[in-house]
Amino acid sequence: MSYPGYPPNTGGYPPQPGAYPPQAGGYPPQAGGYPPQAGGYPPQAGGHPPQGGGYPGAAGGYPSAGGYPPQGGGYPAPAGGYPPQAGGYPQQPGGFPPQAGGYPQQPGGFPPQAGGYPQQPGASGFPAMQGGGWGGAPGGYPGGAPQGYPGGPAPGQPTPNFPGAPATNPSMPAYGSGVPSHPQAPPISKGYRGSIKDYPGADPLRDVEVLRKAMKGFGTDENAIIELLGNRSRKQRVPLVAAYKTTYGKDLKHDLKSELTGNFEKLVLAMLMSQSAFDAYELREAIKGAGTDEACLIEILASRSNAEIIEINKIYKSEYGKTLEDAITSDTSGHFRRLLVSLSQGNRDERETVDIALAKQDAQKLYAAGENKVGTDESQFNAILCARSKPHLRAVFLEYQQMCGRDIEKSICREMSGNVESGMVAVVKCIKNTPAYFAERLHKAMQGAGTKDRTLIRIMVTRSEVDMLDIRQEYVRTYGKSLYTHISGDTSGDYKKLLLKLCGGND
């Protein structure tokens, strides 16, 4: 049986029925030889054209599918690769003429290309082989590749037509790109940290009946109101307004205003509002009038999530007839205005993963914008503090301290002044440790001669179902006495009783 392109030669592959006879130094004898198989190297004029299941000609490299995977043990590794055979492959039309350095460039064959088999001096141009693997010469696998693994390019060389593996040190992703190169595990949730929980079996119709009885007749049963509202979560309290009107045809808030007074009245009404409606109301109160409560603006906008800020914007526009941004713009100025406008967009990155390389870059930018230049580039601080995620910023603050040996708050105080200084510092504190920030706000509200009741009411109401337990821990750790004790000594009457309900207990 003869194959076109493989003439019988002494020492070559003589025509034999169905098999290749064993040759000295060539393929070891096998039972039955290597008969032509469908999908292998069928006899074709012109050498070995690509066939389904064979070695298709791929541009510059190894085909990924359809070839012959290496078998256990690979090709035997005679010393020096394939030894010369008498006659070898003669130069005949359609055959494999001997060429120096490797395989001839034939259509469908293996032309020598970057990333292919290295050109080695050897008999018939085949690369030398060592240890059962592909040749351990420059560009090959030193010492031989592991048995049973597909042949591949040299380590460090590109693999043609294969998807590139990720770089050892991937380039830093730009802000807003995909998965960061140095992800950190998201913080472990500590469970519910609020002091007020859902009351099991609460019924709005029964609850409004209790409220109606507490206000009906001569005098008011404040204790009944305190016990009811102090033991209901916000989602159980807010529906009471609609249930009261449905049941009695009257406005619950109006009736409460007529029966209650002072800070107790303000606290009760605050507890009957939704979170976003109360925030919008507080922002409105902070902006309108002669003065502006800048600390209140920063407190709300720096501590709320994107979704909460977007909802606040909607309610503010519908309730007060102008956008929150317009209200801020008309009442503030300069870099402080820019800070508030940026925070009011509700567009902060909220991913939990942290890119350490990007955190280092941001820390360097903050240092270059402040401590390391004459003057201060407040815009750079604004861009980073208002756009980056809170876990990312905590990493930035740590990198900043390690880089220049100073807390970011101290640098801001050295570089800025006025409202923008206090605003930036508040944003940093709120992001760095939110419970500690609110503990400080509560302490300042009760410290000194008078009590800032608006601040006290707002924080106690808005944080009672978020992180009040953590705030209490930070309070006693920082100031040496419990929040419960401080509220008890600084307030009185029904107002104190309901505040202590929101506090939840003594530490």
TrEMBL record:
UniProt keyword annotation of Calcium present: yes
InterPro entries, A to Z: Annexin, Annexin_repeat, Annexin_repeat_CS, Annexin_sf
Compositionally biased region (Low complexity): 1-13, 21-48, 76-125
GO cellular component, one term: cytoplasm
Record keywords, A-Z: Annexin, Calcium, Calcium/phospholipid-binding, Repeat
Coiled-coil annotated spans: none
Free-text domain note: A pair of annexin repeats may form one binding site for calcium and phospholipid.
Family in the record: Belongs to the annexin family.
Pfam family, one: Annexin
Compositionally biased region (Gly residues): 49-75, 130-151
Biased amino acid composition, Pro residues: 152-163
GO BP annotations, alphabetical order: cytokinetic process; phagocytosis
Organism of provenance: Gouania willdenowi (Blunt-snouted clingfish)
MF terms (GO), sorted A to Z: calcium ion binding; calcium-dependent phospholipid binding; phosphatidylserine binding
Protein name from the UniProt record: Annexin
Region listing for Disordered, in residue ranges: 1-166
Top-level taxon of the source organism: Eukaryota
